[in-house]
Design goal:
Elements (H helix, E strand, L loop, with lengths): L18 E5 L4 H12 L3 E6 L19 E5 L5 H15 L4 E4 L14 H31 L5 E5 L12 H21 L5 E7 L13 H10 L8 H12 L9 E4 L6
Amino acid sequence: MLVKDARLEDNPYLLRSRTAVVTGAAGGIGQAVARALLDAGASVASLDRRESVLLAERAVPVVPGARALGVVADVTDVQALHDARDAVHRSLGRVDLVVANAGVMYGGAFERASEEQWASMVDVNIVGSLNTARAFIDDLLETAAEDRPTDLVFVGSVASHLLLPEFSVYSATAAARAHLSRTLRAELSGRGVRVRHVEPGTTLSALGSGIDDATARERLNRMRAVEQPLTPSDVAHSVVFAASLPPNVNVAELVVMPTRQA
């Protein structure tokens, strides 16, 4: 855990008094980010469409005062996100750190790929990111107006700038999320909101577990065969590091790669 063995007052990555929301937090990178933020002292609301996200409330904070909340919400459902925001306000207060992490990945040859899977990737990866940012933007702007640290983080993929056969639509949604981050940074940076895009390289997670195309699955398996790939916790600690920097410093684009991956 991030701060378990350190003297709390000496740890440079503490996020005391911060209140975070993490989407796609029932597993993988999202769950690891939520846990790492909690360990760093933030109060954290974990959001996911899977009911297992409610188990997040069993997490025991390391830093006194930090609290954990689990909320069932689908990022493609605007009303569900608004209801989740209200639940977070009631339990934890105003949000100053949003991690839009929810995402899905499918693959397959373009001429055979499922249009339903295309729609799912567009809905979750792009529209879900928009919905998440919009649901909490007022919180972020209000916090930034008080000259307090404020972060809007999009967790994407290096697929946003790589050429990956069988993953054209997934890569396109990743590129859209990356450019959304850049344009929102141009719009919001002058108002004090740090907008950040985190691009993990090869990471061991369940992302892509629903791929039913044999060729795409084989390509994904080959990509993940890199020596010592990232774990979700590796990515999570990078998110915490960037959020813990002084308010005048923004790691705007953070590419997190396994050391042995080119």
